[in-house]
Amino acid sequence: MTRTVLIIEDNPGIGELVSMQVKDLDMQPVLVDRGDDGLERFRRGGIDLVILDLMLPGLDGLSVCREIRAVPGYVPVLMLTAKSTELDRVLGLEMGADDYLTKPFSVAELAARIKALFRRVDALSSRASEQAKAEEVEVDGLRIDPVRRRVFVHGSEAELTAREFDLLWHFACHRGRVFSRAQLLDAVWGYNHEGYEHTVNTHINRLRNKIETNPAEPRYVQTVWGVGYRFLD
Q1: Are 75 and 49 in contact (CB under 8 A)?
Q2: CATH number of 135-231
Q3: Domain(s) of CATH 1.10.10.10: residues in the chain
Q4: For residues 25-53, average pLDDT
Q5: pLDDT tens profile 113-123
Q6: 15, 7 in Cβ contact below 8 A?
Q7: How far apart are CA 205 and CA 199, in angstroms?
Q8: Would you say the C-alpha torsion 179, 124, 213, 91 has a positive or negative sign?
C-alpha cells in the first residue's frame, strides 16, 4: 500500500519541495499550510508520517505535535524548523517528535530521514509482534504485561506513554545491563543523533516518577554514574 505523508508547512516553496520528494519516494503527499488545519486532517486518519514545521499560523508545531501524540496509535513525526538550538531540538523531541531537520536542508538528507523513520515503524511493528508472544515480567512488585502494554506497581496500574513503556520494556528485557543514553536512543527511539541525549534523561525522570516509590532513590531504573542506566538485576 502507498504510504501517505501529511506535510504541514506554511512556506509554499518548501512545501512543494517536500511534496515532490515524497512523490519521488513513491508516497502520497498531503500538503496543508496551517497548524490547526493540519491537525484536523491528521485526526481524520490515514496518515503514515507527519512532516511538521515548527512556526505555523493557526497552531504552532509544538502544539500540533502534542495533540498528535494524544491520539491513540503511533505515527512518526519529522519536525522541520529554521531554529537550530539544542533547546529547540529537545523541546520538539519532548513533545513527541521522532526526528528533527533544520532548514535549510538537502533533498538527500530529507529522503534519508523519511526512510529511516519508516524503518523505525517497521521495527516497532516487529517489536510489537515479539511483545505479543512474550511473557509477563515481574520484579520486586513491578509487573509488566507486554501483550496489553500495561504496568502495575504493587498492584496499582501506572499510566505510561508508549515511549515510556518501550523504554521500560527494553530495560526489563536486559536486566542488569548498563546502557548509555546514545544506546537507549538507538534502541528505543530508533536514532542516535548528537545532542539528543537530554530527551533520554527526561523520559527516565518521568518513568521513575510513575513507577518508583521514591524517585530520588530509584530501585528499578538505576543510574550508573558516568555511563548511563540499568534495570534492577
Answers
A1: yes
A2: 1.10.10.10
A3: 135-231
A4: 96
A5: 899 888 878 77
A6: yes
A7: 10
A8: positive
- When the pLDDT of each residue in the chain is averaged and rounded to a whole number, the result is 86
Return the sign of the alpha-carbon dihedral for residues 21, 22, 28, 32.
negative
Give residue 190's region: left, alpha or beta (phi > 0; psi -120 to 50).
Answer: left
pLDDT at 202: 85
Strongest mean pLDDT among 36-40, 54-58, 156-160: 36-40
Provide the CATH topology of domain 4-127: Rossmann fold (3.40.50)
Per the CB < 8 A criterion, the answer to whether 228 and 179 are in contact is: yes
Please tell me the predicted confidence (pLDDT) of residue 1: 66
Cross-strand partners of 224: 228
| Residue range(s) of every CATH 3.40.50.2300 domain in the chain | 4-127
Q: Would you give the DSSP letter of residue 135?
A: P
On the question of pLDDT at 20 being above 70, the answer is yes
The Cα 116–Cα 152 span in angstroms is 33
User: Which span out of 20-34, 96-110, 160-174, 182-196 was modeled with the highest average pLDDT?
Assistant: 20-34
Res. 128: pLDDT tops 90: no
Cis ω on the peptide bond leading into residue 12 (within 30° of 0)?
A: no
Residues in Cβ contact with 116 at an 8 Å cutoff, skipping those fewer than 6 apart: 99, 190, 191
